[in-house]
Structure formats: structure tokens, C-alpha cells
Amino acid sequence: MGSFLVLYGSSEGQTAKIADRIAARLRGRGHDATAVDAGALETDYSLADFDAVVVGSSIHVGKHQASVRSFVDANAGALAALPTAFFQVSLSSVGDDPERRAEAARYVEEFLEDTGYQPDRIARFGGALRYSKYGFLKRLLMKRIAREATGDTDTARDYEYTDWAEVEAFTDDFAAFVEGRLATGPSESV
């Protein structure tokens, strides 16, 4: 089977949790999958050993993680040559509000336009409110944002909005796409 890199950028850990779940799901399908925090990467990280790459980033104040942006910029050529998927994690993807969903889609569109990155699959997942990890000012800011986004303003607890079935469906879809590509690749035609 194939070798997958699941690269992510996370602030409070929800994107890391999703990346780990994606990697575990890929391993469950018989693939080699490694989840790596983009912020911990060496600048000359090579994609040569991977058959496919999944890139994930959380959104904070309308911006993707700088480490993910740097990775995509630095590896544009390698990413263009491989099957890739991109997932975004944000509160804008929580619920059915069309305006918030459009906002989440805009974040993805802007990131892809700015970087020139063209993934084969894209997903937008709801994130989490980690009040327990926020400092005083961030807790106040997130409470105000949450009031509009989810209504979950009790700062004595954390909230998770990720639809895990959606994460698994995205992973399975991308894995099937890559499996199809690997089956038709040069190594199989010998």
C-alpha cells in the first residue's frame, strides 16, 4: 500500500487530533501514515518518500497556520506532483448557517489562491472551543465569537464540534483516490 504524510498546523490541538485520526484511519486501510506538526519540521523536509500528502490547518482570526503556509510554499513543486488533500478546521464550519459556511469556504479559496496549491480533495471540519487552554484575553474573545457561532459560552468547559464520521468519509474518499492512482502507477504494470 501507499505511504501518506498527514501534515498539520494546530493551536489548541483539535487539528492535531483530526490529523491523528486521519493517519490512524489510513493505517487501518493498510497504508503507512505519519502525522507531523508543520511547526516542528525542518525547513528542508523531503516528500520523496511519500505517495500522497494530506495538509491540514486550523483558522485563527481569519488566517491559516503560518507553518502550514510555509510548508505549502516551500514544497509547491512536490505537492503538485503528488495526490494531495487539504482540510481546514474552524468554528465557521460549525452548524448550518450559510453565511458562516461561506466564510469557511472563502478561507480555503483564499489560501489556495494565495499559495497556488491545488489539492485533489478538500474538506472543512468544525473545530473545538478549548476554553481550558486559553488565557484570559483569548477566553473573552473566543466567548464573544462563540456567542455568534455556536452559543456555547460556558467557559468552565470545552466544546468539540468535529464530525468524526465526516473526517472518516473524507479520509476514505482520499485513500480510495490514492489507491486507484497507485494501482495504475508504473510499479503495478511490471
UniProtKB/TrEMBL annotation:
Recorded GO MF terms: electron transfer activity; FMN binding; menaquinone-dependent protoporphyrinogen oxidase activity
The Flavodoxin-like domain, residue ranges: 4-169
A Pfam match: Flavodoxin_5
Cited SUPFAM superfamilies: Flavoproteins (SSF52218)
Domain of life: Archaea
A single BP term in Gene Ontology: heme biosynthetic process
PROSITE patterns given in the database record: FLAVODOXIN, FLAVODOXIN_LIKE
Entry protein name: Protoporphyrinogen oxidase
Species per Swiss-Prot/TrEMBL record: Halosimplex carlsbadense 2-9-1
